[in-house]
Amino acid sequence: MSRWIQRFLLSAGIGLLVYVAYVEIDRRLYQETVNLHLLSPRPPTLPDIALRGLEARLEIPRLALSVLVSEGTSALTLRRAVGHIEGTAIPGKIGNIGIAGHRDTFFWPLRNIRLQDVIMLTTDEGMFEYRVVSKRIVPPTEVSVLAPDAGQVLTLVTCHPFYFVGMAPNRFIVRAERLFAQERTSRRTAGRFVAQRESRAPVELQPILEFQACAQQPRLSCRKRDTHPEGRFRGTQALEIAQMQNLAKSER
Question: DSSP label at 105?
Fold first, then answer.
């Protein structure tokens, strides 16, 4: 009897390993096939996305997340990719794009998503960028998260809690708004400005204090006074001091 149990358990273990290997190979082949399709030139006779179903790549650079988006939310689709929820909007159009995925596979990195993160959707019609504006936990019956919207928004849906074993009781919702060309330019310009400010050498505090003390005594000449360790103020430091004083006066 025990020998039959051993054989049964061995067979079950081998079967489970074969199934897991099959699922992983099928997932990889599907992702590579669709990815090649997205990278290839778009045929002029290709029907609109609304007619043929959405095929796209979803990326969140900060989370190192990159996954294919396929039409529908069937068990087979969500095993191979994340799914575009039928009846919701498509990239580049007014409305609410709904995308669902399993928390224990492709959407596992969503547990670390933050506000202001950038989400990119790439289709054969172009790339569309979105900025995360909110995240929340709702019950499965809260379908209003997929309601149509007057703007261009993206909603990611997965189960919650992420570490829950079995059927998770809630849904984790990430909402993002479309970033247009002007907003992307402003974000990049702001990023470069912050980087330039951080890369500038700090102003020495002691020469500034001595300059301010000297400036309060009109009879003394601060221009040639040797208060700097090198013998005089640097031109750039003097300019920064003057700017700081003008800013303080304007705030008063």
Answer: T
C-alpha closest to that of 54 among 95, 23, 85 = 85
In a domain, 6, yes or no: no
Q: Report the distance separating Cα 116 and Cα 118, nearest Å.
A: 6
- What is this structure's pTM? 0.62
- How deeply is 86 buried, as exposed, middle or buried, from its count of CB atoms within 10 A (0-12, 13-18, 19+)? exposed
- Are the CB atoms for 120 and 128 separated by under 8 Å? yes
Which structural domain, as residue segments, surrounds residue 234? 203-251
Short-list 47, 161, 56, CA closest to 98: 56
Give the DSSP letter string of 141-206.
Answer: T-GGGG---SSEEEEEEEEE-TT-SSS-SEEEEEEEEEE-HHHHHHHHHHHHHHHHHHHSPPPPHH
Q: What is the pLDDT of residue 233?
A: 45
One-letter amino acid at 63 equals L
* Beta-bridge partners for 58: 67, 121
Q: Residue written as tokens 């989400």?
A: 119
Domain end marker among 133, 165, 188: 188
Q: pLDDT tens-digit profile of 195-205? A: 555 555 454 54
Identify whether residues 139 and 54 lie together within a single domain: yes
Compute the distance between CA of residue 163 and CA of residue 81 in angstroms, rounded to an integer.
20
112 DSSP 8-state letter: G
In whole angstroms, what is the distance from residue 83 CA to residue 54 CA? 9
Token pair in block for residue 46: 């290709």
- Pair 54, 154 in one domain: yes
